[in-house]
Amino acid sequence: MTPRKTRTRNHASSTSQPPLVSDYDSEAQYTAPGTLRTREEINHSVIKRYVPSLSAILEIAASAYIYTLNNTTGEWERTGIEGTLFVCELTPSPITGSPRHCVVVLNRKGLENLIVFSEELQNVEISDEFLLLKFRSRESGNGFVQETKEQEKILGLFMTADGDAKERVCLAVKSHWEMAMRERESGEGMEGMVENFGDEGYGDGGMMREAAGESKPMGRRLSLTELFGHR
C-alpha cells in the first residue's frame, strides 16, 4: 500500500514572531524596551517634575526632617515634612548665564514638598544639629496703621546620612548660597530676585514663574506662610 503524503502547511505557525511595525507618524520601527533605569536616572526624572530646570543632582541625604524656629518662644517646631534631600544644580540663568542651585526635600509624609532656591536665602549657617536656612519675610501690621516690617524666618534641616554625606550637603548648600550672594551683589542675578513673599513663594518670583506653566501631577511646593503657620 502506497503511504500517504504529508500535506505541506502554508499558513504561519501561531508561535511565529510578529513583524516589526512602523509608527504611522514617524515611520520609526518598533523597538523593544531598553534596559532598566538606574537609581540616578529615576531620581533625576522625579525631581525634574517639580524643578523643570534641573541639570544635575549633586548631593543626597537619605533623610531630612524640617523644623521652623518660633520667633516668639524660641523653640524649634517640627513641620511634618521629612524625606530624602537633594542638592541640585539647575540650568544657567537664560538672561545672565549665572549658575543656579536649589535644595529639594521630597516629602514622604504628604504631597507638600520643600523646594528652596539659593538666591531666595538671606543666610546659611551650619550648626552641630541643623543646617540653618534664613529668609526675610515682609509682613503687614494690624489695625488702622498698615506698617510693613521685615522678620527673619529660619528653617532647620536635621539630616541623617551615611559617611560624610551630611557634611557634603551642608558645605554644598552654603557654597551655592555664597555664589548666589556674589551674583546678587554684582547685579548679575537680579532677574530672579523679585520680592514675592507670602503664599506666592519665599522670595524668588523668577523661579516661581519658571515653573508656573508646568503640569505637576504629584505634590506641590509649600509657601513660606504655610511653613511657618501664618506667624
TrEMBL record:
GO terms for molecular function: enzyme activator activity; mRNA binding. Belongs to the DCP1 family. It holds the Pfam family DCP1. Residues 1-25 are annotated as: Disordered. InterPro entries: Dcp1 (IPR010334), PH-like_dom_sf (IPR011993). The keyword Cytoplasm applies. One of its GO terms (cellular component) is P-body. This is PH domain-like protein. It is found in: Cytoplasm. Keywords: Cytoplasm, mRNA processing. It comes from Hyaloscypha bicolor E. Residues 1-10 have a biased composition (Basic residues). Signal peptide: none annotated. GO terms for biological process: deadenylation-dependent decapping of nuclear-transcribed mRNA; deadenylation-independent decapping of nuclear-transcribed mRNA; mRNA processing.
